[in-house]
Design goal:
The chain has 2 helices and 18 strands. By secondary structure, it is mainly β.
Length: 324
């Protein structure tokens, strides 16, 4: 719960994080392979400009770009912004500057961190150079950061021959936020502490929403404060079988994610479906919510761990077709 002004309003820190894996293509693949051996490659555009980082297509003509050339590992700051509070996963764990740096021989700047003591130590036009990471593996993080180019050159990296292009890179994606559910969703979350599902009814079309919201997406009318207790049983309106694993996954594949229409609701919510083989799941199957053990629960939808089948006849498709 929040403290101070607005105390009593639910608030929680929320982190959305996942590894993003992508293929690089021949141009970026060569660029990353160059970084691994201490070389920076740019792409020559149709008008002769050198673009760094390289692009596969000319930004003006859209023609393929295949001519890759070396540029320097030093350059000048085009513009910059001071970052006093670095976030998780950023290049440095202390205050630094984000800088657009145009490397020698390049015609476009690239964005990276600049390690300086403070904002007074940064200026547009100042000379900087690459500080290479101690261990390089063919990714943008091979450039640890930029640093002022006011002393002897860094000789820890001897540029080597570029090997085969790096075909795949994995980048962690992370978003940190302070989340407040608002007046529509907050009563629902508080009710989950008592192992109840609360929906909210539209004043105009009489539809009951789970998850609750402030405005009806079906007719546009505002909701009243009327809360409707739903379930705990419901119907599988539709489902999907997951066969692709992902990082930090704790449940074995394949498994089923089901859109459940809880009794009394007019919208579905997605839950993990357990207690039945993936080849036995079907639309219209009757299920119930399974709550966490114990009574000391936090206000969160994760208080429902999953849904599981119950011994009731399937619901005919026409009875829930409007909600699929």
């Amino acid at each position: 719960m929040a403290e101070g002004p607005g105390a009593g309003v639910l608030e929680a820190e929320h982190v959305l994080e996942f590894p993003y894996t992508r293929s690089t293509g021949r141009v970026l693949g060569a660029f990353f392979a160059g970084l691994e051996v201490g070389r920076v490659l740019g792409a020559r555009a149709c008008d002769g400009r050198i673009i760094v980082p390289p692009q596969e297509y000319d930004p003006v003509t859209a023609h393929d770009l295949t001519d890759l050339v070396d540029v320097g590992t030093s350059g000048e700051v085009v513009t910059w912004s001071w970052n006093p509070t670095p976030k998780h996963g950023q290049p440095l764990d202390r205050p630094f500057a984000w800088a657009l740096v145009k490397l020698d021989g390049a015609d476009t700047p690239m964005l990276h961190a600049l390690d300086v003591d403070g904002p007074d130590a940064v200026s547009t036009g100042m000379r900087v150079r690459i500080r290479w990471a101690d261990e390089r593996e063919g990714r943008i993080q091979d450039i640890a950061c930029f640093e002022p180019d006011d002393g002897p050159a860094d000789t820890t990296v001897e540029p080597g021959e570029v090997g085969n292009p790096i075909e795949v890179v994995t980048t962690p994606i992370r978003i940190e936020m302070d989340y407040r559910p608002g007046i529509a969703l907050e009563p629902f979350l508080l009710a989950t502490q008592q192992k109840k599902l609360l929906g909210r009814r539209c004043t105009k079309c009489d539809k009951v929403y789970l998850m609750p919201r402030g405005v009806c997406s079906m007719c546009g009318a505002a909701f009243t404060d009327e809360q409707v207790e739903l379930g705990p049983n419901g119907t599988v309106a539709t489902f999907l079988v997951v066969n692709v694993p992902f990082a930090s996954q704790e449940i074995e594949i394949p498994y089923t994610a089901a859109e459940v229409l809880f009794d009394g609701a007019h919208t579905t919510a997605q839950f993990l479906l357990l207690g039945v083989g993936v080849d036995e799941v079907r639309m219209g199957m009757r299920v119930r919510a399974v709550w966490k053990d114990g009574d000391d629960l936090e206000p969160t939808l994760s208080n429902i761990t999953h849904v599981e089948p119950i011994d009731e006849l399937d619901v005919p498709y026409e009875d829930f077709a409007d909600y699929v």
